[in-house]
């Protein structure tokens, strides 16, 4: 490798390192090595949450150690927030509380499990399959709905004018015995557009 090639690669690497440092300084809530968030040290994010000065956004998934999660309650269990810029998503209640007035883009994707929640070999052999209706609710009022069929993915996207303090969640109706696929197969997200 020629000396000029080495210099070019080294210059490119230095530019990338400078860009990375800039991104960390702007967006990383970092661990200082002592459990504090001073922004110095290892730059390991303490959570997946970006500073609250960023735009309003959240993204949550259904988390389970199993491939699917039974819908035993009315609320679909979006219990793992991967992104929550304003700490507005409650993983326990699977509810997003609107932090600012504005127009929001809300997206929902659910994949129904192939068989009922009682996933025994008997039910698989008999082909017991279920579907259910998923509804997006704002303060318990339905704003959008979709049918989620067994072993199929359903998605919806809706723009909603929301007011600070309103609560959004996804509920399942007619879901007796139904279950949804977990992790990347089922998500609930939103972004403030303006």
UniProtKB/TrEMBL annotation:
Residues 51-194 form the C1q domain. It is found in: Secreted. Signal peptide: none annotated. Pfam families: C1q. The keyword Nucleus does not apply. Its main location: secreted. InterPro entries: C1q_dom, Cerebellin_Synaptic_Org, Tumour_necrosis_fac-like_dom. Keywords: Secreted, Signal. PROSITE patterns: C1Q (PS50871). This is Uncharacterized protein LOC101862457. It comes from Aplysia californica.
């Amino acid at each position: 490798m020629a000396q000029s090639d080495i210099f070019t690669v080294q210059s490119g690497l230095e530019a990338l390192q400078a860009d990375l440092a800039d991104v960390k300084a702007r967006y990383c809530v970092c661990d200082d090595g002592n459990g504090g968030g001073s922004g110095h040290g290892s730059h390991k994010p303490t959570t997946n949450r970006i500073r609250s000065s960023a735009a309003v956004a959240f993204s949550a998934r259904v988390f389970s150690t199993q491939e699917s999660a039974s819908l035993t309650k009315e609320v679909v269990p979006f219990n793992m927030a991967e992104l929550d810029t304003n700490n507005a998503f409650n993983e326990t209640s699977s509810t997003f509380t609107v932090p600012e007035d504005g127009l929001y883009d809300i997206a929902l994707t659910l994949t129904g499990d192939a068989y009922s929640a009682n996933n025994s070999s008997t039910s698989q052999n008999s082909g017991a399959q279920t579907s259910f209706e998923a509804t997006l609710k704002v303060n318990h009022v339905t704003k959008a709905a979709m049918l989620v069929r067994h072993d199929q993915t359903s998605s919806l996207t809706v723009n909603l004018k929301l007011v600070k303090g309103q609560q959004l969640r996804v509920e399942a109706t007619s879901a007796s015995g139904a279950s949804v696929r977990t992790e990347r197969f089922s998500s609930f997200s939103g972004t403030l557009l303006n």
